[in-house]
Amino acid sequence: MTPVPHRSHADDLLSFIRASPSPYHAVASAAQRLEKAGFRELRGTEDWTGTTGGSFVLRGGALIAWYAPEGTPCHTPFRIIGTHTDSPNLRIKPTPDTGAAGWRQLAVEIYGGVPLNTWLDRDLGISGRLALRGPGGRTDSRLVQIDEPLLRVPQLAIHLDRSVNDGLALDRQQHLAPVWSLGDAEEGALLRRVAAAAEAEPDEVLGWDLMLHDIQPPGYLGAEREFVVSSRLDNLVSVHAGVTALTGAATAAGEPSYIPVLAAFDHEEVGSGSDTGAQSPLLERVLSRSVAARGGSPEDWSRALAGAFCVSADMAHAVHPNYAERHDPGHRPLPNSGPTVKVNVNQRYATDSTGIAVFASACERAGAPWQPFVSNNAMPCGTSIGPLTAARLGVQTVDVGVPGLSMHSARELCGADDPGYLAAILGAFVTSD
Questions:
Q1: Can you tell me the mean pLDDT for 115-131?
Q2: pTM of the model
Q3: Domains by residue range for the chain, with CATH
Q4: Alpha carbon of 320 to those of 124, 332, 407: distances in Å?
């Protein structure tokens, strides 16, 4: 069996994932945990003057949180944990009601790099947020989560498609509309259903960001329950580890050497080009305001940034036993052997030798193992928010991640020990040299 501390962390991770079917729910779940640890929300329109302690800012599916106790010098460097809250999935179109041949269906759009075959024949619910008409012409946002088997994208029977196993990926995207009832498409049926789930009236709903999620709960797999299997491991494993590290840093005694920061961005899976993505000025503006709020000058801000360091934590590829030739022969990470440090000399990852040294030092202090990862030269390399953050802020960055299988699938796998290793390493990273 896995060590008790790591199993306890994995148990808590599963609870976090269950409560976070969309980026907006992930942010709400993280904020709830931060508030329980004494952090408070700051709004962008408020005056932050004199703000110290634990603080966080929410914007849609993104969260920026930091801890700067009273008396912390304004030039104290930042230690940033960079993550993202979004996962590839199917998102509901603005005009959703459709159907064919006597079936009622929903129109969906593909979000991110989705292995479409993994979404077939799965019981699907609906989650996201509604934009509601509020008093005085204002708009309010309300979360909605329907963990019921409402929909399914049905596989075509093999008797009607004998070639289905010729390729192990579904490329016929026009057949993605999930079924959810019998009868001709009824206009407004979805609107009424999600409005009721959010305890709102249909005519209050002005817009939505809704998506489908697999309602099968996360759990353990293996002869000794040594694996975690779940939707959205990419990248809620890292978000949860970052929250754990940040709340732990808030309880550390003494004057901090660094200001720990959690940056959980949205839209990483589609390039991060939004007001809540890593390409936006969100993190830069929030951190600069936090320095000014404590009485810092532009020079203090420049010093804090010059000494800053970022660990970009995303999922990584474990070696696949059925496709080992797709991996670099000298870099084949395994589950439960620690997070990987991801290297790409073409800067798809921002890691260099100094970044490896900083992360390896944090691993030593945490008593946790780590593994190197490099893509096979013949395979295109993925990327993450690491290079974007490094370029945007000019801070040293290292890309790391828990290795797993079935990345971007409707249901992914990783080692049960590795999320706990990552949280311990990130805790050591933000609290000491």
A1: 96
A2: 0.95
A3: 4-87+231-431 (3.40.630.10), 89-214 (2.30.250.10)
A4: 27, 9, 11
